[in-house]
Each structure stands twice: as C-alpha cells, then as structure tokens.
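Work Package 4 report. The design task specified in the project plan requires that, given a folded chain encoded as structure tokens, an amino acid be chosen for each position. We show below one input record used in the internal validation round.
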C-alpha cells in the first residue's frame, strides 16, 4: 500500500491531525481531552470517544486530559467521578497527572464573564426562563430583544457581582451573551452564560451560588488546558459557532472542535436520562446491571476491555450517525474470549446419570484441554465417577430424526472421557424422568473407540460427587425491539422492555475447578457460552453471569 493510500484509509480525524502535524500547526502538538459530565455512569457510546481521544494522542505522541465538566451541581456526585475514572482505567487508558475539573476554573470563568460585560458582549437579564424561551423566536422568525439588553456596563457588573455574592434568589437573574436575537442559528440568540443556583457543589461546596452553563464552560476550559483538538460527537456540531464565538470574543487560545459520529447500538438506549430512569424505577438492579450498556455493566457481565476497544475500531469514525447491530459487540467479545478464556464444563439443567457398569466407589481423573486456541494453556484434571450430571436437554426418550444426542439404546461420547449407552430410564411417582442408567465402554478412554466406530454427539458432563453448585444468571437483550427509542407519542418507551431479559438458574452443577474462581474470572462453559464470576458471589454461594452465547442465538431466533 502506498503512503497516499495509507492516508486515505485513515479516518478523517486522523487525517486532520496528520495535516496539522505536516504544516506545523499547534507547534506540532497534539493535545486532546475526554470531558464527561459527572452526572451518570459511562456507557458503550462514551467508550468510542475515550478510545478516539486517548488513541489519537497516543498515536501522535501527544497527551490527553481527563476533565470533568461539573457545572450542574444539582445532578453531579463524587460517585460518578470515581466510577468514570475506574471505567477509563479499565479500558486501558491513563491521563497520568492531567486530571482536571471545570470547577477548577470557576474563578477564571467568572473573570471571563466580567471581561465580556466590559466589552459590551454580555448583560444581566431579569426575564424568567419561560420568558427567555418564548422570546427566542423560531427558526423562521427573529427573537425579541430583552428589555434588559441595554443595561450599562456598570450596572451589569454590579448585578453580576451581587449575583455572585448571593443577594438574589434562584432564577431572579441570569447572565446572557449579547450576540444577535435575529441570528439564523437559534443557539446564538443571546444564550445564557450564568444562572443562580443556591445548591452545594460536590467539590466547591457553598463557595459559589452562580454556575456557568456547559456552553460557556466547555471551550474556555479547553483553552485554559491548551487543548489543540477538541474532539466530540456530532450533536455538538450545533454548538460549534457558540464555542468559537466565546473564544474569539475573549481573544484566547482557540482549539479546533472536530465532530464525529457517536456509537449507538440496537436493543438498548444510550440517553443517560433514560438509563437513570431504568435504575430509579427498578427495571434493572443498578447502573452495573449486566443488561445495561454502561461500561460497569458490561464489565460485570464479563466483557473485556479489548473487546470494547476492538468494537470501537470496527465501527469506525465518520461524519454520519448510524446504529450498529448489537451482534457486532457480541461477536467482538466472542472473538476475544475464544482466544483467552479457559474451557470448563458446567451443567445448567441437570439430570442424574448412573453408569451401572462403572466400579462402585471408584473414580479417576480425566485430562481436559484448557483452551484449544492457546498452545500454552495446558490441561487440567477433571474427576470422573459412577454418577454424573448431564444436560436434561441432551436426552430425549423419543427423539426426532435429527436429534443425535442421548436416547434409549443410543451411544454418545462424553467429552474427554468415554462412550456411554443409555439402557434404562428412571421415573418418579408422577412419571417424570429423574435418572438415566447407562453403561460405558472402558476401551474408549479419551473419547475414541479402538474399533473405529463413530458416534454423532459429544456431550459435556460433571461428576456428581465432585460438582460445585452455583447460581447462574442468563441475560438477554434489555429491550425486545431493535430501536426502543422509536415509539410514538402515545407509547411509553419502557413498554419495549424485554420481560425475559434475565433468567436465574439457582443450582447449576459445575466442575470443581470453577469453585475456586474469583470475581471477574471468565470461562467458556463448553457448548453453553462464555461466563463470568459475578461480584454477588460469596464463600457460600458462587454466582456466574453468562456474558454471551457461543453463537448469535438471537439472530437465529429472529429467522425462525
């Protein structure tokens, strides 16, 4: 591939940065930032922004700041600050000593506000918020000037300082930029810069009773941190003229804002407001519920940082918003765990099997492969005995033509062990099958017959006397429809919640090595999927979550 082809194959953000580096813009620096608001937990959509901001800085020898844009004390909390830092570190990124808060700049932002007043580019407005909204006009009609728009510089400075001193009630005044009430861009019609909020801030306490808006804070914070490329999602493209206006009016360092497509996924919602509603209304167990698209939820479910970073690379960086299929995320974690997760045997819906010709009281150790995709993973010893657990679904008394698993008179292979043949079905008083009696062929140790005969099914199993019991939680999509956001005005978006998104198996039977697993350990349960040890686990009760099936069972289900 030629150098030109290499450049053209790279996303447009990297092409912009490459060109800036070529012409010496920003003195050859690349300095990005990831600026979350600490009013919720990060989700998979944020992961794309994290990967892009940290990724391009690392790629071009630059730096990335982590900055919390904490300008709304009514919704922010240190809980979110701590969780966001944990999530970013888990993804594999490090801001080193560059941790900042917009609240660090409250003093400088206030000075900027006074500077704009002195330059006749801001004024204190005494209209109510409803009056301000109604006075903005429409896209086709100009807005109406505030009756307070022509206050003198001296009066505006006096009022702002008294606002800062706490003399006024919430909503009594606001500070607005003086731009143009007939501007074709609605956002530029004298937007609010400061509002009065007599509430405690998670970092500054009661030091302030006026707080800057996000739009007034964001660009100036970028400027103070000497950011070069302010990379954000496409919804902020609408805010770029205001971002530029503030920086130009203040005549300070002016980063370049670049917008890219956000990451959306089918079968879920990404709005923090809606995610919070799911949590508060009890539709999920918390922000880290394994059905949530939050990074802490995905981590708890068993997703790996590599799988999420790979997804973000796969969906790419463009200027066009689109919704990616959840299958892409699931395939990404399958590919990663297929390489890294050790194999184990577990039975989720057990039926007892007695091997009647196996010596009573005897047992042996069977060698099982830990991961066929990893030559260094080695093997483990799995106990085998006269009594086993098999999956109930692996037996049918009167099987259809294409059912090749265990049935009366039929021979199957036990994974790593022996051929067995079912010869008797045991029922309880109600006629329910409770036990199978089988015989084994001791000449088939290791799962191969010396006479060359073949069987059509290989089943996983667990030795009954050695089995570890665990609770296993099976998760499906949180919503039953691909686009849960697409509801008509009369319908509640939560009506699309999937009632079968969580199923608990209380007494699954696991091979004994799984009883020693620690929280966060991931395994492939052979034939069943990938599973992870849940933080709810205790010394008395292990809990495993299914991360994902071995194949895309949801897509197969839709085709039926």
């Amino acid at each position: 591939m030629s150098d030109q082809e290499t450049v053209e194959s790279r996303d447009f953000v990297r092409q912009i940065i490459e060109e800036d580096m070529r012409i010496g813009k920003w003195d050859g620096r690349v300095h990005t930032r990831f600026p979350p608001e600490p009013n919720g937990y990060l989700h998979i959509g944020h992961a794309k922004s994290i990967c892009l901001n940290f990724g391009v800085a690392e790629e071009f020898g630059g730096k990335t700041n982590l900055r919390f844009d904490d300008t709304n004390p009514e919704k922010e909390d240190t809980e979110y600050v701590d969780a966001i830092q944990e999530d970013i570190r888990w993804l594999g990124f490090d801001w080193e000593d560059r941790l900042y808060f917009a609240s660090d700049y409250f003093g400088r932002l206030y000075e900027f506000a006074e500077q704009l007043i002195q330059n006749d580019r801001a004024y204190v407005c005494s209209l109510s918020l409803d009056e301000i909204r109604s006075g903005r006009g429409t896209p086709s009609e100009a807005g109406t000037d505030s009756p307070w728009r022509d206050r003198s510089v001296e009066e505006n400075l006096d009022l702002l300082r008294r606002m800062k001193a706490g003399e006024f009630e919430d909503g009594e005044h606001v500070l607005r930029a003086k731009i143009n009430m007939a501007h074709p861009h609605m956002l530029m019609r004298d937007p609010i810069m400061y509002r009065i909020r007599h509430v405690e801030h998670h970092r500054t306490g009661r030091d302030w009773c006026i707080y800057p808006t996000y739009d007034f804070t964001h660009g100036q914070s970028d400027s103070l941190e000497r950011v070069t490329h302010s990379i954000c999602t496409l919804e902020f493209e609408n805010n770029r003229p205001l971002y530029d206006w503030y920086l130009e009016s203040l005549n300070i360092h002016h980063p370049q804002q670049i917008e890219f497509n956000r990451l959306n996924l089918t079968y879920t919602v990404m709005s923090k407001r809606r995610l919070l509603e799911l949590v508060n209304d009890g539709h999920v167990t918390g922000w880290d519920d394994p059905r949530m698209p939050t990074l802490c939820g995905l981590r708890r479910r068993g997703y790996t940082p590599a799988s999420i970073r790979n997804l973000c690379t796969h969906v790419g960086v463009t200027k066009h918003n689109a919704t990616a299929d959840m299958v892409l995320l699931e395939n990404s974690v399958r590919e990663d765990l297929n390489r890294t997760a050790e194999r184990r045997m577990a039975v989720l819906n057990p039926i007892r099997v007695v091997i009647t010709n196996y010596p009573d009281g005897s047992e042996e150790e069977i060698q099982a492969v830990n991961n066929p995709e990893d030559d260094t993973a080695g093997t483990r010893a799995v106990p085998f005995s006269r009594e086993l657990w098999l999956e109930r679904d692996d037996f049918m008394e009167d099987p259809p033509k294409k059912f090749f698993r265990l049935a009366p008179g039929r021979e199957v292979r036990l994974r790593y062990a022996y051929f067995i043949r079912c010869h008797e079905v045991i029922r309880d008083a109600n006629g329910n099958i409770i036990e199978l009696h089988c015989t084994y062929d001791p000449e088939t140790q290791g799962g191969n017959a010396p006479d060359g005969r073949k069987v059509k099914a290989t089943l996983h199993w667990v030795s009954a006397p050695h089995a570890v019991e665990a609770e296993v939680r099976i998760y499906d999509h949180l919503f039953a429809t691909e686009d849960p956001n697409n509801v008509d005005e009369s319908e509640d978006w939560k009506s699309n919640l999937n009632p079968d998104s969580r199923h608990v198996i209380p007494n699954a039977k696991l091979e004994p090595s799984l009883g020693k697993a620690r929280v966060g350990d991931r395994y492939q349960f052979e034939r069943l999927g990938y599973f992870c040890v849940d933080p709810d686990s205790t010394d008395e009760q292990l809990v495993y979550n299914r991360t994902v099936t071995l194949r895309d069972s949801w897509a197969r289900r839709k085709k039926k």
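The domain at 265-342+470-559 is CATH 2.40.240.10 (Ribosomal Protein L25; Chain P). Validation will be extended to a larger panel in the next phase.
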